[in-house]
Amino acid sequence: MSLKILRTGSFFFFFAIICISGDLLLVPVVLLGLNKFKFIQNLCRDLVRISWGFFIKVTRICGCLDYKFELSELNGGSNLVIANHPSLLDVVFLVSKFKRINCIVKGELSKNIFLFAAIKACNYIPNTNNEEFLQKSVEVLKSSENLLIFPEGTRTKDEIIFHKAAAYIGVKGAKNIVCIGINMHPRSLRKNEPWYKIPDEKIKYHFKEIKNFDVDIFLKDRPSPVRARAMHDEISKIYKEEFGERAS
Length: 248
Prior knowledge:
alpha/beta, 7 strands, 44% helix, 248 residues, 7-stranded mixed sheet, single chain, 18% strand, 7 helices
């Protein structure tokens, strides 16, 4: 076994230990239904943000990866934060960056032994691809929470293709759309790629705010379906301009 694989495996093991340690606190919250209280929910989100932030700082100190944030603080609530999704760790970075942000996660992660307690205790929203998921997303935005979504629905392969759900959610519930571009070089931790298939050079992430616009003034006199289609086209255009032909 190469030193590179051993080092990468140790960091994933470290992340698993962080998640399991968090479960010791979060599982009782879920079992007792305490996550229905906003105060408890916020404490759980703070715990996840701090522990995941600690993880990425350790990986940087140990030379496994590096990262740069060019992101503004979110202005109040009801921000829909949109990002492309090049790697497995994107959500870890962004949840650790934005305080108490809600997040749309893969539905199957609700059964993941390492993540299920965090998802339930923090009231993150499973992407179940149905009307309930869309309505829940709109409701949390209307309640002044900020919400993170990866509109591709899965990790980026060769080009960035967004589903229309993000635009629908934005039109129905958000005040602002915050578009974040994630650049990663060299590419690694992609979908269907083994965790141990990693490059020889250090992985570098760059998180950049590429657009921030007010939903209320976006075609405000047009019906919601028209606005949603136009917003989807606008968001796709923003990412195409940022990433070239990899976005559509």
